[in-house]
Each structure stands twice: as structure tokens, then as C-alpha cells.
């Protein structure tokens, strides 16, 4: 009998509502089993876990919170929870301010010595050293962004939407929706030294949101929320991105409104997947082995509304989509030759799910 996959779901909701749900995926039967629900944290909209599975990290995407003294404070929080090795239950959370409004994404270095958080409405990125017990320590680095884009409604200010460390852990890439740029920060020789290294501009009004590294590390794929495109960036030199072609994430026949959200590369490096909110689909793109260029392979309905996030299992067998506006997560099996997700018939009701973490 195949071992169950451990799934963690983050959702929008008030502090007294369920925000984090633990689910098991049973591969032999393609079933979801809900095993635990947790409240006490407002809007845990993005989750990460360390490799050992001993600590879960979450952003609390707010512009105001109540601090330890019971006073209101501006901004959001970074939370981390110990995870029991046997029961897999979460222990009491530890919280740090993110010193910016609406933190929406976080990432760990491969060596798990740093954690970065992007403050979407705070025009900033915070960096936290990680202690020996996997707990984040107080933040010691803050990068502030300045700039705007041509979309007056969405690009009136910088909006750092995601943070990703390079595979070698030496660089931090920040997709800023408001500036139409991917900012690059580099690690210095000193213990707490990080500084601006480079930047690449995308199409004006594109609105870069998330990015994905090809497993080889030689390419980066950026999903652009506002114009529903993917831009390929070559990454032949460490910390240096060079803009290549862009292509639409939507079918040519679609005429409605839609906004991209998540992008992932398959573990085998053959496909790229992107979610469309409005068209409510996962777009599938084949990677040319010779040139690295993307070619559309098809679109699959997410069986729900507004798929803000999805995840691929490490073995490349499964895709789980979180449909924020229809309150469901949906399981797909990846057809290995075509790369297309095939609906398994399995879904689970969860209120406003916006993040899927597969351990």
C-alpha cells in the first residue's frame, strides 16, 4: 500500500475560523482524508514547511493585528508552528511582525538558514534568520521597493508578490507586480549581508506575480497576473536573468476577464503549469528540450472558481488545485506522456482555500 501524501491547506478567514487544514491523500484510492483543522491565525494565505517536517511557516495576510500586549499594530505577521513527529499535530504558534501590510508569500533557502516574506501592500521584503530549532528569529534585513506601472488601479505602487531563493541559496528573486520587475538580491560574505544585485523589466502592465525555476536551474518562468502571460527568463549566469519570449496562458477563443495566479514546473522538467482565475483553468505548456521555449499543450478546468493556488506532488503524479471562490480543493492525476491533469473525481470542501502544500 502506497504511503499517504501529507497535505496542508491555507485559507482566508477570520482568526476564529479554520485557517489551516491537514489532509492526507491516499494514492491507492485517490481519496482525500481530512485529519485536522486549526484556527487562531487570520488569513494564513501561504504556507511552507522545512524539509524535516518539524515546523510549518505561514503568513498572516492582514494590515492590522493584535500584539502580545493586546494592542493593535499595523501590518501582518509571520507565524511558525512546531509539528509533532508522530501525531503531525501543530503546536502553539510563534509570531513575528512583517513590518508591512498584507504579507502574501514566503520562501526558505535550500539550506534553511534564511526565510523571506513579501509584503504586497507594504512595498517591502523582510528577511529572517532561522535558528537551530527551525524557528525564525527577529528580522534583520528589509528591502524597500519604489516604482509604479501603467495600470493605475493595480500598479499605483510597488507590490512585491512573491519571493524565491535560487537553487544554490545565493540569490533572492522578488516578483513585483506593481513595478513590472523581478528584483534580484545577492548574499554577501558576511553572516547577515544581503544587497541589491540585479533587476529585469517585464512588459509594461504585465504584473509579475510568481515564478518557477526549471529543475536544471537554467530557466525561470514568470507568471504575469495582469496580462495573463508567462515570460521565460534564461538563467545561464548565477543571479542574472535575461528576458526571452512571452506567451498567453489563455485559449485564443477566450474573451472574458481572467488573472493568473500560480506557476510551477514539473519535477521532470518537461512541463510548466499556470492557473487562470476567471477562465478557471490550469494551462499546460510543454518545454522544448532544445530551446527551452514553451508551447501550449491545453487547458483543464479546475472544477471550481478562482484557482488562486495549486501544487504538484514531488513524484509528479498528482496536481491539487485550490478554488478560492467555490470552497473546494480538487485532485487531478497527471497523464505522464502529455502532462495534462486528469480529474480523478475527488474533491474536498474547504472554505476559501488559497494555498496547497504537499509534503
TrEMBL record:
<dbReference type="GO" id="GO:0017057">
    <property type="term" value="F:6-phosphogluconolactonase activity"/>
</dbReference>
<dbReference type="InterPro" id="IPR019405">
    <property type="entry name" value="Lactonase_7-beta_prop"/>
</dbReference>
<dbReference type="InterPro" id="IPR011048">
    <property type="entry name" value="Haem_d1_sf"/>
</dbReference>
<comment type="similarity">
    <text>Belongs to the cycloisomerase 2 family.</text>
</comment>
<protein>
    <submittedName>
        <fullName>Lactonase family protein</fullName>
    </submittedName>
</protein>
<dbReference type="Pfam" id="PF10282">
    <property type="entry name" value="Lactonase"/>
</dbReference>
<dbReference type="InterPro" id="IPR015943">
    <property type="entry name" value="WD40/YVTN_repeat-like_dom_sf"/>
</dbReference>
<dbReference type="InterPro" id="IPR050282">
    <property type="entry name" value="Cycloisomerase_2"/>
</dbReference>
